[in-house]
Amino acid sequence: xxxxxYFDEIxxxxxxxxxxxxxxxxxxGRTDVIPMWVADMDFRTPPFVMNTIQRRLQQGILGYTCTNxxxxxxxxxxxxxxxxxxxxxxxxxxxxxxxxxxFLSLLRFTEKGDTILIQEPVYHPFHLVPEANERRxxxxxxxxxxxxxxxxxxxxxxxxxGCKMMILCNPHNPAGICWSRETLQEVAHICAEENxxxxxxxxxxxxxxxxxxxxxxxxxxxxxxMNSITLQAPTKTFNLPGIVSAHAIVFNPTIxxxxxxxxxxxxxxxxxxxxxxxxxACYSEEGREWRNEMxxxxxxxxxxxxxxxxxxxPQIRPIRPEASFLVxxxxxxxxxxxxxxxxxxxxxxHVCFNSGHMFGPGGAGYMRMNVACPRSIVSQAxxxxxxxxxxxxxx
Length: 395
What we know:
By secondary structure, this protein is of the alpha/beta class. It has 15 helices and 15 strands. It has helices at residues 4-8, 19-22, 24-28, 47-57, 69-83, 98-109, 125-132, 153-159, 181-193, 222-225, 253-265, 275-282, 285-312, 338-348, 375-392; strands at 34-35, 92-95, 115-118, 136-139, 143-144, 149-150, 165-169, 197-201, 228-232, 246-249, 317-319, 326-330, 351-352, 354-355, 366-370. The protein is globular. The relative contact order is 0.17.
């Protein structure tokens, strides 16, 4: 059993080529800030993963390494136990990351000039990848319901016409929404009617709070099952994004043959020497136990943030996430432009967050905060934000 002290440990990441530290100056103009922007954790990668890596390294040869039965069985068992979704090994393909899975799907099933639908505000590669590959992006905005965001089906029905693909974020990043079965069924029906293929990014599916259970898009109806590509990965939940391991699940045999043959033909089906063992280690009883303890700790960080911001910084309203360690902060009551918000948090509060505008027009007035770090760091960040607010606003 992992106790709280495991997650309380502060691990220096200076000198480790950490992305979140290397690009601080570029992102917020200074380095004397708490980095809470990149979506990885500041917790130690689980010991069972590190032990797995050590065992593999002891073989002494880092040669080409294939998938194995244990890898496929672990993914199938995890989907069965966690989401009630039956998956067969032949319905799974390794992909070198979820964004790469989106990229490969995009190349296989769309052409230059085709239209791709995304629901903003949303994870920024959803528009960057299609645009970089000369596809046109339609941003079908989510509806602000004063507490969080929800799907606007009238707008979706209008915007989806003429599109070739929809990239779905399930659970949603940055707002941490767990889409309901009924919502996903409606999305599946609309897309099936318009012959629009759905690529569902489900990388945050194993970090749900409040006893919620993830609903995979492909599980909600036969329409969804036969018209989708599901992308999963253990890398967010178990803090091993540097290992680069993800997988695509495709139930429709025609779509599967087209995608998997393309992945293989593009030489993208062979993972690195560590990724299969790490995935297998994560999707286990030991992994489930660690994950559950991590969720409790992160939820405690979120509770602390929600309580203190309401009391000390009422101008900033965190949207309580239903999933993930990312918190979308509604800063619109601060009355600042996006540039002013960025400068306020960097120059006065000395914290580095993601600017909401990077997620689309609906993210204006928001910032995204990563709370997957020791509680003392979260508390320190809140102290600094509260002090900055006190200088600018009256309670």
